[in-house]
Specification:
Elements lengths: L3 H6 L1 H11 L5 H37 L3 H37 L19 E6 L12 H8 L2 E2 H8 L5 E2 L1 H21 L3 E2 L5 E2 L1 H7 L17 E2 L4 H5 L6 E3 L5 E10 L18 E11 L4 H18 L4 E5 L11 E9 L4 E10 L3 H6 L2 E3 L8 E2 L1 E9 H11 L7 E2 L2 H4 L7 E2 L4
Parallel strand pairs: 4-8, 7-13
Antiparallel strand pairs: 1-10, 2-3, 5-6, 8-9, 9-15, 10-11, 11-12, 12-15, 13-14, 16-17
Helix pairs in contact: 3-4, 5-12, 7-12
């Protein structure tokens, strides 16, 4: 959501950001509705003051026996009531239209976000590690997993439909091992507090983090009006909704390993083979709540937290900053980590780390109280990121650590989580 005072003072900045995203300018309509709302409120206040004054005059007129004057004042008060009801309806209509419009507008981009239309225009910040070379043709993860007898898409499809998978044996254990490894790194080395949050949330919670109302088609809804979370960012960030934190409580950093659920409504025909784009997947999420002057540094710190996972797994990756047309709805700036996938001969996203600045905080009314005297509460800045996507990390391990005989060497960082197992063979 937006600070209307900021829009009144910076309408061109709002429109410029929208146009950079490929959207149409709307500041004129926002200001028109805002003016209508404020005008109705001003007139209502004036009428309320006049009605109160007239009501007092009626009492005085009746007391003094000025019957005709009292009746005239009563008629005026009655007329004011009708006019006020009409104005209240006018104010509600303008406010509703304004709020509905604002709720669909994406965050204002940081000035240093590169311009561009889509992922092809993202800007590479750095590459880390060297992609492995093989003396055989590298296979994609789904061929490796199925050949091992440990990855079953067919049975999952019979049970649940497309975009589901069943992992068995050592691959099921590796999925769990990856999540445990990631949580240990983030809690022990980077100071995040582990949380086990609900997987079902209310509608207002998804509104707070920006998934609703615009992206309802990409979510799963239950029959009683709750929603399955698309990411743990939703419940973790909303842990501070409606609260005023003391400045010494910041930074507030939490992490969680959860299942995530996405309808993938806009991904028809994309990544239909394998585990890359599933309706149900697992992710270790990072959320940081910070003061406004710390959010830029926190974005870099969080990116490093996610990178550390890939470094310890020995996976080659690159870091990109998303261009204006590829930056998500709630983000002011986003770093993506893309891991090398030999079976696809390309880098694929495995983590997305975003600074939303005060965008989510305004929607959920999350604030903090600066320590200086005389300062009122201010909105916090919120950041979120994958630390990292568990399923895609499993894919990356399979493809990067595959052997000529179809077995998978387990990265050293995971072996203690796998009971000392070093290599996965068929049906292990």
């Amino acid at each position: 959501m937006f600070d209307l005072k900021w829009i009144r003072e910076n309408p061109e900045a709002l429109d410029r950001s929208l146009q950079r995203r490929g959207d149409s300018p709307v500041s004129g309509r926002v200001l028109e509705l805002d003016t209508a709302r404020r005008s109705a409120q001003t007139r209502l206040q004036e009428m309320q003051e006049r009605r109160n004054a007239a009501s007092k005059q009626i009492g005085a007129a009746v007391k003094d026996g000025r019957t005709e004057e009292a009746e005239s004042l009563k008629a005026e008060v009655s007329g004011l009531k009708d006019e006020m009801e009409a104005l209240e309806a006018e104010e509600r209509t303008a406010s509703t239209a304004l709020n509905e419009l604002l709720s669909t507008l994406p965050n204002v981009l940081d000035d240093d976000v590169p311009d561009g239309a889509d992922e092809d225009d993202n800007s590479e910040l750095r590459k880390v590690g060297t992609p492995p070379t093989f003396e055989f043709e590298a296979k994609p993860h789904y061929e490796l997993g199925e050949a091992l007898g440990l990855m079953d898409f067919e049975t999952a499809g019979e049970i649940s439909g497309s975009r589901f998978v069943i992992l068995k044996g050592a691959l099921a254990r590796m999925e769990r091992a990856l999540a445990d490894f990631m949580l240990d790194v983030q809690t022990e080395d980077f100071g995040y507090t582990e949380v086990s949050p609900p997987l079902l949330v209310r509608e207002d919670v998804l509104y707070g983090t920006g998934q609703l109302p615009k992206f309802g088609d990409d979510l799963f809804r239950t029959t009683d009006g709750c929603w399955l979370i698309p990411t743990a960012e939703v419940p973790l960030t909303n842990m501070v909704a409606g609260k005023i934190l003391d400045e010494d409580e910041l930074p507030y950093r939490v992490t969680a390993h959860t299942a995530c659920f996405r309808a993938e409504a806009g991904a028809a025909g994309k990544d239909t083979r394998g585990m890359l784009r599933q309706h149900q997947f697992y992710k270790v999420e990072l959320v940081s709540i910070v003061s406004p002057d710390e959010s830029e540094a926190e974005l870099e710190r969080m990116t490093g937290c996610a990178e550390e996972i890939l470094k310890r797994l020995g996976l080659a990756y690159r870091v990109v900053v998303l261009c204006s047309g590829d930056t998500g709805f709630g983000a002011a700036k986003t770093h993506d980590l893309e891991v090398w996938m030999p079976g696809q001969d390309t880098y694929r996203e495995i983590s997305s780390v975003s600074n939303t600045r005060a965008f989510q905080a305004r929607r959920m009314n999350a604030r903090y109280r600066p320590s200086g005297e005389g300062q009122g509460p201010e909105h916090v800045h919120t950041l979120n990121g994958s630390g990292v996507a568990v399923g895609r990390a499993l894919i990356a391990v399979l493809e990067n650590y595959q052997n000529a005989d179809g077995s998978i060497t387990i990265p050293e960082a995971l072996r203690s989580y796998m009971g000392g197992l070093e290599v996965i063979h068929g049906d292990a």
